[in-house]
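Re: export button greyed out
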Amino acid sequence: MPRQERAIQTRRIILETAAEMFDQLGYDATTIGGLIDRTRLTRGGLYFHFTSKEELARAVLDEAVTMEGLAPQTFKLQEWVDLALLLAHRLPREPLLSASIRLSVDVKARGMFGTRWPDWIAVGQDLLTAARERGELLVHVDPQETARMFVAAWTGIQLVTETLPDGDLSTEVSGFLRLTLPNIARPGVLAKLDTSPTRAAHLLAPEAGSPATGRP
Amino acid sequence: MPRQERAIQTRRIILETAAEMFDQLGYDATTIGGLIDRTRLTRGGLYFHFTSKEELARAVLDEAVTMEGLAPQTFKLQEWVDLALLLAHRLPREPLLSASIRLSVDVKARGMFGTRWPDWIAVGQDLLTAARERGELLVHVDPQETARMFVAAWTGIQLVTETLPDGDLSTEVSGFLRLTLPNIARPGVLAKLDTSPTRAAHLLAPEAGSPATGRP
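Workaround output, generated via the alternate export path:
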């Protein structure tokens, strides 16, 4: 493997291992020493990429706002739904994403690094504003208020679901969308939105069969 | 002041100060030493009431499920709404309540003490089941699923709102109720529910003017 490629891979391993530790132990209890144990790197090998726990936390949070799997859809509202479902599908599989929520609800880490919630609210607000311009929303819907409420509710659903036996985040988020969309989407649009818990898996692997747009 | 009454008051001061520390510093960074500094009690005075940080955390969580201010209403659904609004009003004012959420999202404390979310879900489920028996709910509403989703969403709204400048929990929870109730309550009931952000303040001080039942 070329040296540069190996370096990129090592950086990734460090970042994901740090994310796992933040997620499992919390910010305070995560240490560079523990990270060296888990990655089996030398201190020098680690410090080549990251020189402090703070730098690791910032790098984890920098990767938290991600649109992977999102594709243009007939309705902007479907893209907003897709974002919620994609994250619900990915979070239990990607330590970087769950760690970013853990750091956001940890008082100490939050005080040091802030949260990525304002960025997520801005993303949702942009999509909802575009949806409104295309006439997809009921007239009373305020894009900013709705985006804020969704980011908040989504976060709480993640935090509570991970503590429940057999809790499945995709199912919960899908249920939440079904509960709220009738008071957001115009009826004609609502009938065409796909809020299925399995949609994200299809979006991330379109070759697996299901089309990327509309109902399967 | 009689000795017993003073002891009860001291216990309360310790508990609220510990709650403030859990909330502001997190579970790990809260210490008995720091608590002695803040309460200005002697170690013996403190140990008379609580012998460990674990015991304090358990006592905080024991007070987390509270119905204070809740009164019987014409509609069971109004009682459920009231519970959401009462907690939204009280939480920013009562360290015991915010500490219980902080402990629930702290990985270490959660591992040691669990969370009170299952208790809250059970309370909501009971109210929604009673509402369904009285014909207040739309036919598709599942009391357990809806209760679970609400506890989760409410928690997330609290966690995100406290980080936003000018975020007001009562306003946010009221907005969330207005977003979701149209897909939960039967139309005739919906029109009579009071979801105003100021309702909880009236419920907690009925002598201040507003009636406890129905719209003001």
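Residues 125 and 146 of chain A are 8 Å apart (CA to CA). The button fix ships in the next patch.
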